[in-house]
Design a protein that fits this description.
CATH superfamily: Imidazole glycerol phosphate dehydratase, domain 1
Helix content: 25-40%
Number of helices: 5
Strand order of the largest sheet: 1-2-4-3
Strand content: 25-35%
CATH topology: Ribosomal Protein S5, domain 2
Shape: globular
Order of helices and strands: EEEHEHHEEEEEHEH
Distance between the termini: 15 Å
Number of strands: 10
Largest sheet: 4 strands, mixed
């Protein structure tokens, strides 16, 4: 379990379909060393690092050449979610909630995040039936869903406007980055777990 002074984690997941390793540091400088096999997913995760000031190393390999991107994308989201949860630790002294409204040209994405211990994802990205380079648009939604479930966070993302699917996806990840940065930031006025239950572990 990570402590408030050492908010890092390493998590590995290996199945018959994929192998994924994630190393995360919440109090980083925005360094991304990401290789999932999908250039688009790598690009989106780099946005998460840069704008959330998270250091992230991910390596993922899978059966996408045979079965498509579903397994690799899903398992990367699962592994990142579990690593994130471990890095947050018991949440002592964090703000817990974060939100952001981020534009990218014609696209506008809104994110609200609660590190609550309760897994829930309401995702309205407008990407179903589209493609972003090598990645089907709905895989972006599925990645975010898998992350939210395993991170045990409540995540709401809504793309309020947009035409270009790349812009819509990137705005969503930038907004998520800002919301994560706000939610995980230390609250100078608090030294306790931000919940009347005394826990955000679920």
């Amino acid at each position: 379990m990570a402590t408030v002074d050492n908010r890092t984690a390493t998590f590995e997941r290996q199945t018959a379909e994929t192998r994924v390793k994630v190393v995360i540091a919440l109090d980083g400088t925005g360094i991304a060393a990401v290789d999932t096999g999908s250039g688009v997913l790598d690009h989106l995760l780099a946005q998460l690092c840069r704008h959330g000031l998270i250091d992230l190393a991910i390596t993922a390999s899978g059966d996408h050449l045979l079965t498509g991107w579903h397994h690799t994308v899903e398992d990367t989201g699962i592994t990142l979610g579990r690593a994130f949860r471990e890095a947050v630790g018991d949440g002592t002294g964090i703000h817990r909630m974060g939100w952001a409204l981020v534009p990218l040209d014609e696209a506008l994405a809104q994110v609200s995040l609660d590190i609550s211990g309760r897994s829930y994802a309401a995702l309205d990205l407008g990407l179903s039936g589209t493609s972003i380079g090598d990645l089907p648009g709905d895989m972006v939604r599925h990645f975010l869903y898998s992350f939210a479930v395993e991170a045990k966070v409540t995540l709401h993302i809504k793309v309020l406007s947009g035409v270009n699917s790349h812009h819509m996806a990137e705005a969503s990840f930038k907004a998520l980055a800002k919301a994560i940065r706000q939610a995980t930031a230390r609250d100078d006025r608090s030294s306790s777990v931000p919940s009347t239950k005394g826990t955000i572990s679920g």
